[in-house]
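User: I'm preparing a small set of examples for a lab meeting where we compare how different chains pack in three dimensions. I only have the primary sequence for this one, and I'd like the structure in token form so I can line it up with the others. Please keep the answer compact; I'll paste it straight into my notes.
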Amino acid sequence: MTTPLELEDIQGLVTRGYRTLTSACFLVLATAGPAATARAALGRLAPRVTNGLSDPPDTAVNVALTSDGLRSLGLATPELDGFPYEFVVGMTDPDRSRFLGDVGENAPRHWQWGGPAGPPVHVLVLLYARDGRRLRQLEDETRREVLAPGAFTETARLGTAELTDREPFGFRDGISQPLVEGLSKAAAVAGDGGTGGDQVVRAGEFLLGYPNEYGLLTDRPLLPPRYDPLGVLPRAPGGGADFGRNGSYLVFRQLRQNVEAFRDYLDAETRRPDGSSDPAAQEALAAHMVGRWPGGAPLVRAPDHDDPALATDNGFGYHATDPAGLRCPLGAHIRRANPRDSLDPRPGSADSVAVGRRHRLLRRGRPYGPDGTDGSSGTQGTDGTEGTDGTEGTGNGPDARGLHFLGLNANISRQFEFIQHTWLDNPNFNGLHDGPDPIVAPRQERRATFTEQGRPLRTRHVGLPQFVTVQGGAYFFLPGLKALHYLCTAPPEDGRQ
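Assistant: Understood. Below is the structure token output for the 497-residue chain.
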């Protein structure tokens, strides 16, 4: 039986992608004084935070905090054992960096924000609006409420490009999203008897306090009841004050996409014998690397050319139609990020699909910089010039473009980190050799190889440069609204600072 979601206590970013709020920016903050001052400033913003009940028509505000941020607000208590290790130590912990491939060009010492040598990262304020004018107004109001003297300083302002259906490499984005059990879209397909139901994932994979795909409750932070004498937090079985309920972990990574290097590589690999460029071959190779055509049609359904009728098709598998990767290469990006029914045990079975559901993410990313489809957009994001709303961004050059990757999950290790390490970065994924993800994986000791399976012969593309580099990032906790209110209230005699 499905547990009803407490939408009024869930931040709206979990339940909504804010697709109609096409302007956005993200403020990365650090506490600048006593915990009580920072809590008071955050408390002025808390009433504005958007819940998950409905799509906001004009603006939305969400708030997340790092482990250091929680401590800076006075929640440094030994009883918070329910927070996972990777969240507590943070994304830039040396072990986490090695595991995620954040070495070489991706190493945190090179990051624009969030790195060990830069200012601290405590609070993330996510601002969304229907247009640039409303975003400017929302940002001004937020700064007045939060950036009060002695409360917070601004570590970074991350601007975004105007939201479209394309990412900077020119491909349709946002197609393959899991459907969360308990939300209306999931209810519409869960009983249809088709492959759409395979995309419905238990709410506990993304929200704490609900059963996950194992039928269990993911560990979450609980406080002794004495820490919440006013009863602000919901109570867990056993009486503990449930600080984690209706919360989620937000993985934020600023990814710079080298669009020019991507296009140059495609051109060099597909030139005709006479040395001239072959645009059709370039598009086909790019599609094989991604697993979809630029318009969105999946190769497993449209192997020879793009098909507008399949632009948002997501109800397909691999095992029955393309087990050998002759349509969609075994190492293609979407085949790694969501292997669907191609995994052991028993590929093609419900058991195989169930494995994939235990490693899904809710993606809420936003592009930044020029549009990336034709290079003509004048909007700038986190590149040190004007953002879409006319204010300063942060980044590394006037032509920088990429993606602010935002992923929501209830278990960072089993979901985000597993996908990154075991599926995307793994050079031996799916029986391959020296073949990490051709689009997003780092190139460490040498450049990588991308293989297009074929009969009678395969085609191997060697020397893939690194197309995506990490520019910043952190692990955040996106609390439920009751937990956020608890953080902002004056502390009772509970040992907090």
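A couple of notes for your slides: Residues 248 and 483 are 12 Å apart (CA to CA). Confidence is low (pLDDT under 50) at residues 371-395, 492-497.

User: Perfect, thanks.
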